[in-house]
Amino acid sequence: MKRLLFIVLFLALLPAALPVNGQIVAERKVRFGAILDGDTVPFYHLKEVRILESGSLLSQQEIRKNQKLIRNVKKMLPYAKIGKQRLDMLERQVADLPKRERKEAIKAAEKNLLADYSDELKECTISQGKVLLKLIDRETGRTSYVLVNELRGKLRAGVYQTFARLFGYNLKAGYDPKNNKEDNLIERIVLSVERGKL
């Protein structure tokens, strides 16, 4: 009986073990791959997985204590993500343009951004604006001052920084969740929001 079972299994698995010689097997279609030493190696895109420390999400006590900050982060996070998407798109568009056309494209993008979101952002409070600056830095990896400096020039960045300081903002303040207690709390709130815990 065992011998018969072995023969049946061997015959069933034999077609899968034979070389295909250029034919595409329907169940095992390789969409992306690389040829290394004459061998086709499949290449798969996997989703990013973040491994969190046990204390990285907020406790119930922290949620009760920081309701205002949680509300501000939840309100400003979509704007920061949209800003990141638009910045990436703009950088791809202007990468190969001459200087003059680059400036015109940046001005047009700024005008479109203001037309789309200025009414909503005018209603934001000062604390929500500070959170937005932190979240923009988190998403892009660059402070608001650096972004304005790269896109609009040093003079414009200096004027914006001076104006921002009048209202208690600092465009040069970076986002540092490892060393800054408030930034760490914002990071933990964002992680909780992204995982659907808030």
Tell me about the biggest sheet?
2 strands, antiparallel
Determine the fraction of residues in helical runs and give it as a percent range: 55-70%
Q: Return the structural class.
A: mainly alpha
Largest sheet, order of strands side by side?
1-2
- Number of H- or I-type helical stretches: 8
Q: Outline, from the CA principal axes?
A: flat
The fraction of residues in strands falls at: under 5%
Please give the radius of gyration in angstroms. 26 Å
Query: Order of helices and strands, N to C?
Result: HEEHHHHHHH
What's the count of strands?
Answer: 2
Give the termini distance in whole angstroms: 59 Å
Task: State mean pLDDT (0 to 100 scale).
Answer: 79
Question: Uncertain spans, ≥5 residues at pLDDT below 50?
Answer: 17-26
Description:
- It is a single chain.
- Helix content is 63%, strand content 4%.
- It is mainly α and 198 residues long.
- It has a domain at 60-194.
- A two-stranded antiparallel ribbon has the order 1-2.
- The radius of gyration is 26 Å and the shape is flat.
- Residues 17-26 have low confidence and may be disordered.
Write the layout of secondary structure elements.
Elements (H helix, E strand, L loop, with lengths): L1 H16 L15 E4 L2 E4 L17 H6 L1 H28 L4 H24 L3 H15 L3 H9 L1 H13 L14 H14 L4
Antiparallel strand pairs: 1-2
Helix pairs in contact: 3-4, 3-5, 3-8, 6-7
What's the quick description here?
The protein is mainly α and 198 residues long. It is built from 8 helices and 2 strands, in the order H-E-E-H-H-H-H-H-H-H.
